[in-house]
Amino acid sequence: MKNQYFPKLFRHGKIGNVEIKNRIVRNSMGTYLGNPDGSVSEDQIKAYAQAAKGGAGLIFMDNVTPVAMTSCGLRADDDRFIPGLSRLADAVKLNGAVAGMQIAHPGRDAGFVGSEDVVAASPVTYEPWYQHGAKLPRALTIDEIHSLVEKFGDAALRCKKAGFQILEIHGAAGCLPTNFLSPHDNQRTDMYGGSLHNRMRFLLEIIQNIKQKCGTNFPVGVKLSTEDWEPAGITLDETIQVAKALEKAGCS
Fold it and tell me: Tens digit of pLDDT for each residue in 80-100?
């Protein structure tokens, strides 16, 4: 099949060492079909199979959290979730697509999904949300940051064990890495705040931890917002620098 406007759209491609039958990606937008405890449901498995049958080369559907959360999609914070995740990966692969999984921590957005402990780089939230009653996040301690880096890596390894072939870290749209990247949201004065070098440290440490646990050849990408459209927020020029640093760190 050929497309005059996108001649390579239906050609084979590669992300890292993973071959994909075409260049079409089903983005992670959430099915909200999982069980209330964050485990995989039968309806979810059917949805993944149907998506793969649609013809996209790479399928992302839901995302998993690296910490214990409910109402935030699926979970990968414990080995007990691996069997269910494996069934999702199998449903995609058996229907001709590559299985991808996004790992996401909602950061300051967690207050909207019922989380009691809302965390971010600093106690800063989006002002219109605050005016509508959103809970202010608390600033993570250094020890908590280090613990979260490990948890991202552990969640990634569980996804790999479950059979997912490509991972994506959600670093856009208000998720936790974004709270660190934005100079508006990140008011820290330690090694995780201030300069762009410091503000991207958390995200780079996550990638390094995943590479250590999953192997340097395991494909990992990052979803980034080019700009966050807040006053004094991250700009396109800074995002380009972040992307270059992530590529150097081994992102596909």
Answer: 999 999 999 999 999 999 999
pLDDT for the residue numbered 113: 58
215-150-203-33 Cα dihedral, nearest 10 degrees: 90
Residue from 69, 172, 52 nearest 119 by CA: 69
Kindly report the length of the chain.
Answer: 252
Say what angle helices 201-214 and 236-248 make with each other, to 10 degrees: 20
Q: Half-sphere exposure (CA, 13 Å, Cβ side) for 199?
A: 22
Is the separation of the CB atoms in 89 and 164 below 8 Å?
Answer: yes
- Identify which of 5-9, 216-220, 226-230 has the greatest average pLDDT: 216-220
Q: Are 65 and 104 in contact (CB under 8 A)?
A: yes
111/117 Cα distance (integer angstroms): 8
Say whether pTM exceeds 0.90: yes
Strands 13-15, 18-20: pairing is antiparallel
In terms of C-beta density within 10 A (0-12 exposed, 13-18 middle, 19 or more buried), how is residue 70 classed? middle
Counting Cβ atoms within 10 Å, is residue 61 exposed (0-12), middle (13-18) or buried (19+)? buried
